[in-house]
Amino acid sequence: MLDTTEIHREILSLMPNIRRTVAKVLRSSRYYTDDHIEECMGDIVLQIFDYGVRTFDAAKGSAKSHFTTFAKQRALNWLHVAHRRFEAVPAHQDSDDETTPVQLTDDAPDAFASLVRAREAAQIRAAIAALDARERDLLAAFERTRSWGKAAAEIGVSPATASRMKASIAAQLR
Fold it and tell me: Can you give the residue range of the structural domain that contains 18?
């Protein structure tokens, strides 16, 4: 059994991994900046040193897996709460660009949802436009038939070819 001082040292050595995990979770939403990551990390560090230390059991697993999982769960919760409060959520920008926040109020939940849908729809349209013609045909056939096998037959390709095309489509749409 590790004593509290050893656990604290272990946590401090894991902070770069924990920060990367938190950043990955928040950036997956595409609407959060480094400021949000730092705010979330501040909350998580306090929770790790309080609750996380009390729940750690070396017999059940490594400190790295425990505290990284703990941080990931807390980051997801933080993200969920932030969306529910309809905070000012900045648009995702490359690091060279300035980030302009989008101001939302508590009485505008539909505005937030519309903003997210519009951005995602534009990204999806751009990704679909980047597909080659056969892949777009397969995707359109799948939309009509709701079956990859039927879509493959409709455009005249083998199921194996359709499977490879499906994997290519999925990779390009990520």
Answer: 4-85
